[in-house]
Amino acid sequence: MKMTGKLISICALIATSLALAAAQDKGPTDVPGSLPGIHMASPLPNGTWVTPEGDYAGTRFSPLDQITKDNVKNLKVIGTMSTGIPHGHEGGPLVVNNTMYVVTPFPNNLIALDLTKPGYPQKWVYQPHPDPKAVGIACCDVVNRGASYADGKIIYNLLDANTVAVDANTGKQLWRTQVGDINLGETITMAPLVVKNVVLVGDSGGELGVRGKMTALDLKTGKVLWRAYNSGPDKDVLIGPDFKPFYKKDQGKDLGVSTWTPGQWKMGGGTIWGWVSYDPELNLIYYGTGNPGVWNPDMRPGDNKWSLTIWARNPETGAAKWAFQVVAHDAWDYDEIMENVLVDMPWQGKTRKLLIHPGRTGFVYVFDRETGELLSADNFEPITWAKGFDLKTGMPIEDPSHRSHQGYYTKGICPSSTGAKEFVPSSFSPRTGLLYIPAHNTCMDYEGTDVNYIAGTPYLGASVRMYPGPGGYQGELIGWDVAHAKKLWGVKEADLPVYSGVLSTAGDVVFYGTMDGWFRAIDARDGKVLWQMKLASGIVGNPMTYLGPDGKQYIAIYSGVGGWMGAVADPNVSSDDDYAALGVVGAMKKIKEKTGLGDVLYVFGF
Amino acid sequence: MKTLFCLVTLSALSFALAACNRDSGVAVASGATPAIPTTVGPVPGGGAPPAARTNPFSGNDVALVEGRKLFNWYNCSGCHGGHAGGGMGPSLRDEIWLYGNRDDQIFDSIAQGRAHGMPAWGPKIPEQQIWKLVAYIKSMRTPQEPDPPLMPEQEGIVKGTINSVPEAQK
Questions:
Q1: Are B77 and A460 within 8 A, CB to CB?
Q2: Residue B5 confidence (pLDDT) above 50
Q3: How far apart are CA A172 and CA A123, in angstroms?
């Protein structure tokens, strides 16, 4: 068919207005001032914040630019709210339709705040009353990492392994689905991601011998659409004809069974308690899995698939596209549930679809996210367990003297189990090409010990003690040049790890917090501290930004120390047992004197 | 009005005391372990505490070592910390005892379980083993504590450096 010029222009006009409508709704994918060739893999939040990471691609970058490196020094507190729950406030709030939504630590209340009125009065509180027995099942404080907004609903997970959908206007529960069993050690702390009509829900309990899995729920009804386990036969793992892992090490039939001693895979861990990313164009979701159960490696000979694995799957069916097991037969409790940042950018002269994964193992892994090919792996903190990665085989070049075993302490393992970075998400700015990594520098001694499996109790089998790593610092906010795979600069913390998420903005300002409670804005290009303020308690949450009803840009952050390492601030943990709290006490000696527990939401603006 | 208040208080007190006497009376009379051998909450108006059962392994060094083994065997260490300094569950090394620090009270916390996650081990662990666990817990921070926590510096580990690494990277 031949179109006239007039018809073509009309078509172009319609196409443009459709694109504009979509853009207004979802925000841009290309950011003014971006480095040449950098393209965001999903639309950026445009004044709202409706997913845990702001966008689908896990960049935690906002195109808002009212707050700049020149005026950020004028930031002041606009609003505060106490949740009344002195536990780790991980994650961050959502903002949509001039309402802010806060999910609290256990008992996991959902609080809606009216942003149109001074002081942000409460609209309503939804109280789900999860089973209090879940408190003693959760490994590392009773945290919650946030919610997603979709289809007029706020969807989030409860500590007792239920997922709820709540009407965003009324606060009424629409559905509630049990996705795990606390009597088997299953809890949930992660923030679900909603892709189309699918709610993606992971799990926690890697320290209690659970069998890790991703559960997909129907957005309208909460009914289970599919389940993909991280151990067991291929049919349970949803490995089928579409599965094309790049490396030989990840190829084969029923590896989730054959890489374990018989039956051990049923207690194989590999939970999903971090973040889920989504590429709308490839229609693939990405997430990582945690440590294998039990922590003692000698009790589970084999590669232990699919622990410490990055997955690419179809969101509607769950079918696996590729998998990459970062390290086989983990001997250090190195979960790899960290965020997967999706960006299209030039890589060695050619534009590629990248997946960037700053790992607990201490390397920044860069993959081709279409195929699962490992393009680079470079360490961002001191490490001793490996010397690097062989990009041809996708396998680490390990130092066997730093692989733990049963019966004696393997000393000087760096990083410690808590990683060179914890679950707290980094941020990527297309304007600088930098990944801003909240990092740790801690080492450990680790001994595998005998242990019994008793359902619903810890299945650890390890005696661990951690301590500060080399170099005279324990935490660092790193500016990492992705294209050149190198650290450009770091803002160091002497006594405590950096345990907060990061936000970067088009104003070239990067926000994050410290465990002793400093909320900080730094220059996105050189890390210079531009502004900081001491908040009520240590910061383990994720900063976010939005446009208020007045059209002005605001920044929100939780202050309330806790989580695995942060829980040492709790008076219930003694400081004379370095092996307590799963071994973190020795690395956290200073926290009790530097901060107390807290529970406050802060909103900053001009 | 004042008289009436006193009367009400007194009768409440005598009721509470009577209830306590009844409880301990059952235990003494039958010699069996009662359903609720000791109290968790405060006794209204005070009064005599319930009779305490004694630990048959008190001061027994062999039992302490066994108690330490059982502490790992039943995964107590997973929640309360490698040497009971706390974590998922509270520290047992400190001086805070929500449910009492007498041998029989610690026994009951283990046997009955406690709110917010302490499992009820009574149906799973033999009574003698629970007493050995109690003996071990009571020995913490005393010279009798078996296998006390060794801090890295006591083993020559220098914090802030990479230790025992032949070819340390960076």
A1: yes
A2: no
A3: 12
